Amino acid sequence: MRLLAGAGTSSYGDWLTTVALLVLLFRLTHSPLGPAVYMLARVAPKVIGPFPGGALADRYGPARVATACALLQAALTASIVLSANHAAIWPIYVAVALAQFFGAAAQPCYSALIPRVTTPNHLGRIQGIYSALGNSSLLVSPALGALALSITSPQVLIGIDAVTFAVAAILVGSIVGADEVTRGAHTSRRISAGIPIVMRDPTLRFLAAAYISNAAAVTALQAVLVVAAAQRFGHDADVGWLYAAVGAGSLLGTLPVIRRTPGRVSTLPIAAASVVELAPLALFVFATALPEAILLLFASGLGAALYQTRGVIGVQQRVPADVLGRAMAVVRSAQYAGMLLGAIAAVALVQPLGWQATVLIVCSVGATFLFFIAVSETRGSTT
User: Fold this and answer.
1) Rounded to 5, what percent of the chain is helix, strand, coil?
2) What's the alpha-carbon Rg for the chain, to the nearest Å?
3) Of 95, 344, 57, which Cα lies nearest the Cα of 189?
């Protein structure tokens, strides 16, 4: 309960800040590049963050590492408020980048902690609740942000986020006893020990590929979502409702694994659900009304939760506890690499081509990449 409460608290605050910073930087810069560069600063450090985080979690214990990361995020988030009050844009980007690095380092820690605080037959329930908390934060926090921004400043919401990180540090720090685990006799201490584990397993390979392609499309849309809300639906604060639609779909997608822990997770359900996430993102470009856009993003969030939750359970079922942090680091790093590619595409394409073409291009490239990965896996299984 303390693990779930700590993770949930930080997730709620994090999405509150995401909406607040998108709106803040759009207002400060008066340009679509403002939020696009923010997304780049948000995702670039995440690519490398999981590897040291996973390695430290396997060596010193995931609860200790997650607690330290939360404390550092609290301090960095508080510094954003000071920079925003002085309209200092570049220090905001720097603080965001550092905070996201530590946030990415913490993610393998949470995934490695879950099997240590529950039994295998309850793994799906705890992982499902953990995912549901994160997804419900995407539902609730952006909606609250959209409402709150009409009566208060983005700085207030960012300050609340700093407090949530401090609370998370206290809660997760109270379960350091779960850090103790029996180490295998031949366990490697290399930071890259998770890479061969993921690459040898076809399901985990496809999971990593899906994280890359879909995260790129999601991030490209996120980078221009506030622009789409302002230009197509009339107000930049409507971005909160669009985020909330994704969260609602994601929350629904976690319910099956909460009810029953999946058996041996296979590739086919992951592949099908990844398509369910990707297709509505491309169709969003053609949405002309806010309810239509909300429905599409709801469907996308549903597909994301269906494959991501099962995929993580698949990793937890396959990988020993003393290398689980590094194996999850590979999966998370694949996700963040996709996010980085999507952010770079948004920064490079949004000005010359517009936000609609940017989203369509990234979705098309992601779908093509997944198709070739699926074909190669099918050929490999028949030879």
Assistant:
1) 85, 0, 15
2) 20
3) 57
Specify the length of the chain in residues.
Answer: 383
Domains present along the chain, CATH in parentheses? 2-177+192-382 (1.20.1250.20)
The DSSP call for residue 184 is P
Estimate the crossing angle of helix 123-148 against helix 2-29, to 10 degrees: 30
Q: Do 173 and 106 form a contact (C-beta atoms < 8 A)? A: no
Place of tokens 């200790």: 64
User: CA–CA separation, 312 vs 123, rounded Å?
Assistant: 11
Instruction: For the chain, give the percent of residues with pLDDT over 70.
Output: 92
Q: What burial class does residue 29 get, using C-beta atoms within 10 Å of its C-beta: 0-12 exposed, 13-18 middle, 19+ buried? A: middle
**Whole-number Å distance between alpha carbons of 144 and 305:** 22
pLDDT at 186: 44
Residue with tokens 């301090």: 75
Are the C-beta atoms of residues 165 and 11 closer than 8 Å to each other? no
Mean pLDDT of 258-276: 81
The closest alpha carbon to 33, from 355, 339, 359, 366, belongs to 355
How far apart are the C-alpha atoms of 248 and 143, rounded to whole Å? 11
CB 278 within 8 A of CB 259: no
- Stated as kind and residue range, the H or E segment containing 308 is helix 290-318
pLDDT in tens, 43-58: 788 888 888 888 888 8
- Ranking 109-113, 244-248, 283-287, 354-358 by mean pLDDT, the lowest is 244-248
pTM of the model: 0.75
The pLDDT score that the predictor gives to residue 74 is 92
d(CA 248, CA 229): 18
